Amino acid sequence: MSSSPSGITDHREVNFDGLVGPTHNYAGLAHGNVASMRHDGLASNPREAALQGLDKMKSLADLGYAQGVLLPQQRPDIGALRELGFSGSNAEVLKAASEQAPQLLRAVCSASSMWTANAATVTPSRDTSDARVHFTPANLQSSFHRYLEPATTGRILTSIFRDETYFAHHPALPATPAFSDEGAANHTRLCDGHGGPGVHLYVYGRQAFGGDGVEPQRYPARQTLEASQAVARQHGLSADQVVFAQQHPEAIDAGVFHNDVIAVGNGPVLFYHELAFRDEEAVLDEIRAKLSTPLIPIRVPLEAVSLEDAVSSYLFNSQLLSNDDGSMTLVVPGECQENEAVWNALQNAILAGPNPIGEVLVKDVKQSMRNGGGPACLRLRVVLSEAERTALSGRVIMNDGLHGELGEWVKRHYRDHLTPADLADPKLAEETLTALDELTRLLKVGNVYAFQQ
Ligand code: SUG
């Protein structure tokens, strides 16, 4: 599916989902992410989490959508604990950290790399100045547990998108508050079809230099204008291809820590909440002026869905997928079904409205949702031409065989119960390394982990 209505059928969007890692746990690490804060300390089920993710990938692949998979990271990141002064054997480092700095231990065990919408910002070759696909890993400097991701993310991306004829990789931006970057979760490409020219909507929460100081008061704004501008520059985009929009501070203060919790776009469709942007009209006008095709806005008013309901249901953290017949499918988390206002909005305003969305698919990703990660957080969108898809390295495109092998791999290596107290268990660290070593061979991606260098 997922071809271009404009006739350029060569390009498809491939969604690369993050495989949930064996240390998936609820550590309450993300200030301003209400699900993470609410589920702090709850026992997790890493096996179920990984299988839920694999089921989502498989069911979308079965429907004909191009689906890829990205590897989890090496956790616990014992190297990070050593950098922070812990020493001795791995078991001694884990024990000392659990006794002296339990919050640090939780952070270095986080499986947060599963949310690959934050892995990087990607620009398709159709739009870049050198006609290659460009990647910038997000620096994720807003939180310590996520700041640990970009180095390995960069190695994973360069290993899969290895062919320099087609793919260009940039370093993550300087990891400092002025260039705080959370990747594709704050980036939306609007276009006619995937192969047509795109307009890149970058949504930021605050401006580091200058600005008028209108910012959230309660929770942090994770993306800066300066970071988004730098990524657009790295990727060779010109002023007529980009729109920079400030997120509504009220939304951030209600728990909308990324734009993809309040808006999702695909092709010419922008599905968003009334309080997604600080200046809604100006944003739409600028997109309309730059987009080569009429914009199809689907606006959900506050009176239909409150910010609280948007955040608890993750209505907007949906995947909006293109079908061959020009229609679109919205993949929503199960929590949308449990919320009457949200479910009504989906049935009445969205499915019955004058827009291409013809179908809603419900997916259960509860294990991830409890940490604030819905269907859209779990995937990195990469629009690729046929030649670019052929140039991919590794065995990362989902099909029955790969799904079966990954499911078996999960069942062999993952625990089904993990509490914060279990994180100091040196056996968990050993199990994880064994599992990941095997995974790099299964996916044929080479030695991407620090322990393999
Ligand atoms: O960065 N949660 C992640 C969720 C990321 C969701 N991604 C997108 N919206 N694209 C975060 O807040 C919680 C980890 C913990 O509390 O154990 C966490 O990191």
Automatic annotation (TrEMBL):
It catalyses: N(2)-succinyl-L-arginine + 2 H2O + 2 H(+) = N(2)-succinyl-L-ornithine + 2 NH4(+) + CO2. The active site is at 182, 258, 377 (nucleophile). Gene3D superfamilies: Succinylarginine dihydrolase. Keywords: Arginine metabolism, Hydrolase. It comes from the Bacteria. Homodimer. This is N-succinylarginine dihydrolase. The gene is astB.
